[in-house]
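Lab notebook, bench 4. Still working through the backlog of constructs that have no structural model yet. Next entry is a single chain of 735 residues. Request: give me the structure tokens for it.
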Amino acid sequence: MSQISLYAQQQGAGTSYSSFIEIDLFESEPIKVSKSVQDLFEPQANTSSFSQTFRVPNTTPNGLFFKAVFNVNSLDFDATQYASAYINVDGAFFIAGNIRLQNIIRNDFKGRIEYEVIFMGETSTFGSIVGPRDLSSLNFSRYAHNLTYLNVTKSWQPGAAGLYNGDIVYPLAEYGYDYDTNNQPIQTTLSVYTGAPGGLKGFTKNTVPYNNLEPNQLKPAIRSKVVWDQIFSEAGFTYTSTFLNSALFKSLYLMSTNTASSVQTPSVAFEAITDEVYYPTSSGSPQQTLPLLSKSVDYANAVIIPTGYKAPYTGSPYTFVVEDIIVEYQLAGSPTTANWSILLLRNGTVVGSQQAYLNASFSPNVDYAQNVNVFPPTTPNPNRFTFSASATAGDIFSLAFTAPNKYNLFAIQQATFSGSGPSIMDPAAIMPFQYKQLEFIKAINDRFKLVWEPDPENAKNFYIEPWKDWVTGGEERDWSDILDESKDISITPLFYTQPRELIFKDSEEGDIYNFLYKQQTKETFGELKQDSNIEILTGSKTISSLFAPTPLAPIGNSNTFIIPHFAKDSETKREPIQIKPRLLFYNGLVTAPIPWRMANGAFSVLQTQYPLISSFDKFPFNSNSLDINWTNNAQYWTFNNVGFSGRTSKTAYTEYWKRWFDFTFSPYSRVMTATFSLTDSEIAKLRFNDKIWVKDAWWMVQEIKDYVLGARQNVRVTLLKIGEFNYGIGTGGDS
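Model written out:
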């Protein structure tokens, strides 16, 4: 019988292996392992290809780990935390993962205490760490840059010549406009100048005065691999992948915004609400801190609740505003004035002070004031307190207030604290608050049908490849001699495990052409309904996506100038929207059918090319282009105007899902459940894309159920018959 050892890291200990202690196990309750391929497709789930729940005794060694958790009043063990762990078999490493406390079992009559724990592989740890985190919380400060003509046009260049080696791109796209009282656009429009109403603001005007597109009318896209890598880095994980390091994946960009705006908002802008604070008038305190209760805008992820605002960049001016102040007060006597002060602090030192007074009828009783004015009240915005200060990255700006002794009671119940800084663009500003990092990971997984395999030699690393590539790997093994033919063998057509139809669908979006397509077809642009046409199957399953599709269409007054349109139309306006995350290829600089103009400070620069972002992997588009949509819908242009109809047979489905679909719904593919005699080493070495020779056919393992660690034994295994498909395997059964 093999010796099984479980090691776990003590809470509060360091990360070295010397901080791991051996957990005593019950001999009567061996550790079982279940290994399932399904968990390789869902890394965002809190599951693992290895998992087992079991009990351990309350021994002295185990007490070092569990401490006094059996005592309901104990505070020395945090049951919300998992502990890094690993299992050895006969002194040799078998698997790494984590353990979590599930239950405490007490029997005071018998004087017995036991702990029920669950051991799970590292896939579960990734999901639990990344799960709560928003996309907007990712740190992209290393990509912060001034929003200038130079940086915008630099971003259009390829490779090392680009902005941050091409990680940031400002594509040409229409985001909508602000309008004056006559419903005329304030900004230059992405349309052809005609000199007539509806074409006066077009950016192609080539006579003075020019209609220049301003740099802040373009918004940044960030390389998808940068986002993926940052999620892994902040979670403390790595990956090994040919696909994720390929030129194709590196040419994909994430496009999104967290507000609906026609121009790019400075990325350091923020807005927060203060908490209620009573001024201790009796103590004579010189000032009282005004903590922050919540935030509604935080583009640079710089607001620290309740402390204040942490300047993300060095520069000036930083402008801070305090307004919407609600005060509760009781006057002492009947003074003619009731002044007090708002203070701005930088790292605890006052750098700004403004007097305020209550614009209310003074009363000796408790009263409230919502119209708090600057004193003296001579500013254009008498209810707005404005401060300006320089900052070094990391400086903390906070609020405080003072009130003189003429008050018996004084409290600020609420105020709005907002601000902005230098015109610096941080890619975090394009990340919407409402989407999670795991939603992005899952959306990439689903688009390319990625498979994750834990690295057996590195608990924090994954091997990640598309299923179509992963399935051709692995080793060939012969299990003919370890099949227990005395036990029942169940063989079922594989398609019975699936619904009849799969629906591949992106998020619905409200821009002009997504809305138009939805109205015309009652479907989402790029949506695919893939019917197996197997009449004995029923039901459907939807593969939904975080990403929204991006149809291309010509600009106004042109049939040949094609760009994305991230705006919606009302009766008289083309208005901005908050852009849902989009997955798009950067096609580089392409020839502009009509020259256009962009502002470089006070100068106008003629542009004969434009930066194109699209769902196609290369430009010029042709029938060999990959369309990243699920299916290749008819486009909003014509062959006569562009020289290509927009139709291609290469899509996300055909390139990354079709082979799996054909295999899964093949009438010749089978699921077999049988009993095999296996050892620890055979299970440890097994990969789910290994080709198993048994019963005169090639199979792939799908699940091993409840294998007891420690000895060769019979165990139930579920396998898939590979059928007539060629996955690069041999013709014999050599292992």
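Notes after review: The longest strand covers residues 582-600. Confidence is low (pLDDT under 50) at residues 730-735. Flag for follow-up if needed.
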